[in-house]
Amino acid sequence: MRESNLLIKITRPEDPELQSKARWFAGQPGINSYLSLAETKSGLQNEAFHESRSEVPILHITRKGTYLLTDEESLTFHPSMALLRLMQIIRGEEDRFLKAVALEEGDTFLDGTLGLGTDALIAAFQVGDRGKVIGVEYSSVLAAIVKDGLNNLALGKFPPVKNPKKREAWQKLGEASPRINIRWGSHYEILAQMPSQSVDVVYFDPMFRRTREESASIRPLQEISYQEPISLNTIEEAKRVARKRIVLKERKFSKEFDRLGFTIEDGGKYSHIDYGIIQLKGSVM
Ligand SMILES: C[S@@+](CC[C@H](N)C(=O)[O-])C[C@H]1O[C@@H](n2cnc3c(N)ncnc32)[C@H](O)[C@@H]1O
């Protein structure tokens, strides 16, 4: 699992809310932050400090939100894709992810590749009040940014919207977010520590197969995410921990499905991705 060296910068050092957010980020597991709150009070010192560590990503904490600036990209938590998908689901449209994971109310879902948390939010909506989602992320800074974003959603911090359908979707995201428990670490290690048959569905949406051009929403993750293929040992652990099924999202025609033992049940005709499934013995399809 990847620790993150960060420069934490608050735009208004005198603002106690921003100070406490900076402290919260500095205290998250796997975050090694370099900027003390006192240092931010002196612009001069701050600049010198900044320059001496220009290779370190900067976490900007502002009144408008928190974002991470790396060499090339800016990354922030924004549930826009989850919101769009949720509106479609509420309208009764099919969501291929939900079809593949086949979650039922009250289920426990483990997302082994949390990323920006879009799929985890959709899963958390689907499992309802009695359900649970565990989101595992290798990058500590990403885990912290998503955790902070979900906390804000749970507090009802979303933009004012006139459209009642959109407002309803924001509210549903707000209700779903506290059901997600984020864990920083490698999915193999976290699965290996879990009791057998302790979740219903395990899901993987790995990163390494994507290219920069392919997905604008995932591009900001390139620099900080973990991009190695899923190991066979991980799938063995997932088979032990899951009761119902394991699902892998991959590029259409990817050899990963075969290598890891997944079957494609319902390939999307016009989509460039597919969902592979390992149905576990004893579970009903
Ligand atoms: C393509 S993104 C997932 C996007 C996610 N499904 C969403 O809806 O936002 C893959 C994420 O999985 C993480 N990841 C890759 N391998 C991992 C591993 N072995 N353990 C934990 N996280 C991993 C990457 O760091 C990256 O953030």
Descriptive report:
35% of the residues lie in helices and 22% in strands. By secondary structure, it is an alpha/beta fold. The protein has 2 domains: 4-69, no CATH class; 80-279, 3-Layer(aba) Sandwich (Rossmann fold). The structure holds S-adenosylmethionine (SAM).
| Element order: H for helix, E for strand | EHEHHEEEHHEHEHHEHEHEHEE
User: Helical amount among residues, as a percent range?
Assistant: 25-40%
Tally of helical segments: 11
Question: How does the helix and strand content classify structurally?
Answer: alpha/beta
So, CATH architecture of the largest domain?
Answer: 3-Layer(aba) Sandwich
Gap between N and C termini? 34 Å
Q: What bound compounds does this protein have?
A: S-adenosylmethionine
CATH superfamily membership of the largest domain, which one? Vaccinia Virus protein VP39
What is the mean predicted local confidence, pLDDT?
A: 87
CATH topology of the largest domain: Rossmann fold
Chain oligomer state: single chain
The coarse silhouette is: globular
Described by strand count, sense and barrel closure, the largest sheet is: 7 strands, mixed
Using the CA coordinates, give the radius of gyration.
Answer: 20 Å
The fraction of residues in strands falls at 15-25%
* Number of extended strands: 12
